[in-house]
Amino acid sequence: MPLENMKAMLAAAKEGSYAVGAFNILDYNSTKAVIEAAEDLTAPVIIQTSAKTVIFWGSSAIMSWIRELVKASKVPIALHLDHCKDLTLIAECIEAGWSSVMIDASSRPFEENMSLSKQVMEMARPKDVTVEAELGAIVGVEDDIHVKEQDAHLADPEQAVQFCEQVKPDCFAPAIGTAHGVYKGEPKIAYDLLEEIASKTPIPLALHGGTGLTDEVFKKCISLGCAKVNISTQLKYAFIDGFVNYHNAHNTEYNPLKVIGSQFDALKAGIVENIHLFGGAGKA
């Protein structure tokens, strides 16, 4: 099955009150884990690449393994560029075959954020590529975006409505109090803000900073309108821990394929758990 963009899958998720898991991959092994988990659960899924990952491997190399893994799949799969501030890299990924991209101009003044987001919409539309945009600052570190906690601010609901009406992104990520990375305390989620924004725009919302949230928080955010849930840090931990834990348990054995297999199992197990939690199983 060819790659799909996010429009149909997120519309269905919003209508069905579940969320599509969006998982940040790191290499071929992690990409395979995402796809096999989705296939086992008959679930739609979004494969995400950070800007750093694209720069590290190169867009052509990533697309080569994506096409190889996706061609035999029977579930809807989108390939999404996550949190990108560089319009040149966004253009490169659109040309290379990404089916969805995110412009993150949330650190810019409101009017500039809208202007840059509109530019990306104009770049993406002719290629049938969906666009995600963000408003407000999300605490933590995501790629090269550093937001100090004291400077973090939630999305303004009136600006959110104006942004969605004027830019018309396919997916909208408002800052509601979640954080990128690992939570150092209990997150304070602005559920009332999420509910207000969701009630004032038909655009599916994305929940960022998903790693470490409780099941109850996930379920409430999804029930209030989040149709896309981002998971990145969790995969980074599974990627490293799956490798290290196997080696620690078999420290006289130097069989790289067994170590990579253990890494794959750790990645897939977490992805399967999340797809179930987000309600995406059986929705393909």
Briefly characterize the structure.
The protein has helices at residues 6-16, 28-41, 51-57, 59-70, 87-96, 110-124, 157-167, 191-200, 215-223, 233-249, 256-278, and strands spanning 20-24, 45-50, 77-84, 100-103, 130-135, 140-142, 145-147, 171-174, 205-207, 226-231. By secondary structure, the protein is an alpha/beta fold.
Textual characterization of the structure:
This protein is an alpha/beta fold. It has one domain: Aldolase class I (TIM Barrel, Alpha-Beta Barrel), CATH 3.20.20.70. 49% of the residues lie in helices and 17% in strands. The protein has eleven helices and ten strands. It has helices at residues 6-16, 28-41, 51-57, 59-70, 87-96, 110-124, 157-167, 191-200, 215-223, 233-249, 256-278, and strands at 20-24, 45-50, 77-84, 100-103, 130-135, 140-142, 145-147, 171-174, 205-207, 226-231. Strands 8-5-4-3-2-1-10-9 form an eight-stranded parallel beta sheet. Strands 6-7 form a two-stranded antiparallel sheet. Helix 2 packs across helix 11 and helix 7 (157-167) runs parallel beside helix 8 (191-200). The longest helix is centred in the last third of the chain and has 23 residues, at 256-278. The radius of gyration is 18 Å and the shape is globular.
